[in-house]
Design a protein that fits this description.
The protein has 252 residues and is of the alpha+beta class. The protein has 6 helices and 7 strands. It folds into 2 domains: 2-46; 112-250, no CATH class. Helices cover 36% and strands 18% of the residues. A 3-stranded mixed beta sheet has the order 5-6-7, with helices on one face. It has a two-stranded antiparallel sheet with strand order 1-2. α4 (143-153) runs antiparallel to α6 (198-213). The longest helix has 39 residues, at 2-40. It is rod-shaped, with a radius of gyration of 55 Å. The N and C termini lie far apart (177 Å).
């Protein structure tokens, strides 16, 4: 009896010692054990295998089924799907894009016309002679304005090579031009009043303007204005410009 009781006590002590040893080992290595379990997914595999399978979800008989797009196939051809309908807004935008804007419209071509300008030739005996030159200008709706502006700008290279001069004072500008009752009203800047060549130069510049303006069939006479005013005399030499001038004014 004593021997059997000793064996039982020894066995109990052995298991207690084993459990204590395993506990100590687990506490000492529980982090490594947890990492191994997480890495191998041991717990998930064991528990997933024991869970019952979920039944497949079967749609009820009355549950509507989404309609599939209708596909038509022509004999001998590939299947075609109907094109998507365009919204009214998209159609309006497409139409607007096809219509050219006003800024895209081509501008009308500028109209050029040939006009007659008069520059001055000085003869061998010192006489001042107006001489006609043909020039092309962009007339637009103001051919008289373009003609006198071209005159003020002076002769081109070809006219200079012919010995023609412009005796209108430098810096002169045409401010406005109009025609009433076959009379052209030409308004010049202040520079037009003073010619450095004196009386002969003033007469020459008036001839240039009057002859060039009356080259138009609709103009017979020219009224000279300076800065919008009608002056009695052009310069201190006393050349009268208080009334409209014609070509006959310069014929002695």
């Amino acid at each position: 009896m004593a021997t059997s009781r000793k064996r039982t006590n020894f066995g109990v002590l052995f298991w207690i010692a084993s459990i204590l040893l395993l506990s100590v080992l687990y506490l000492a290595n529980h982090r490594n054990i947890q990492r191994v379990l997480d890495t191998t997914r041991f717990m998930e595999v064991v528990f997933e295998e024991n869970q019952p399978d979920e039944p497949d979800v079967v749609p009820e008989a009355n549950e509507p089924v989404a309609a599939l797009p209708r596909v038509t196939e022509e004999p001998g051809g590939a299947a075609e799907t109907p094109p998507p309908e365009e919204s009214p807004d998209a159609e309006a935008e497409s139409t607007a894009a096809e219509e050219p804007s006003q800024s895209d419209q081509p501008e009308p071509a500028a109209h050029s016309t040939a006009v007659t300008l008069y520059f001055i030739r000085v003869s061998d005996d010192g006489r001042i002679i107006p001489e006609a030159v043909e020039r092309s200008v962009v007339a637009g709706d103001s051919p008289l304005t373009r003609t006198i502006e071209s005159l003020v700008n002076g002769p081109n290279v070809d006219a200079i090579n012919r010995g023609l001069l412009n005796l209108i004072p430098d810096g002169t500008r045409l401010l406005s031009a109009s025609v009433e009752g076959r009379v052209a009203y030409l308004n010049f800047s202040e520079e037009f009043r003073f010619n450095p060549l004196g009386t002969e130069g003033s007469l020459a510049q008036l001839q240039q303007v009057v002859y060039s303006a009356t080259a138009f069939s609709s103009i017979d006479r020219v009224q000279i204005l300076v800065e919008g005013n009608v002056l009695d005399y052009l310069s201190v030499e006393g050349i009268y410009i208080g009334a409209p001038l014609s070509r006959d004014t310069f014929r002695a």
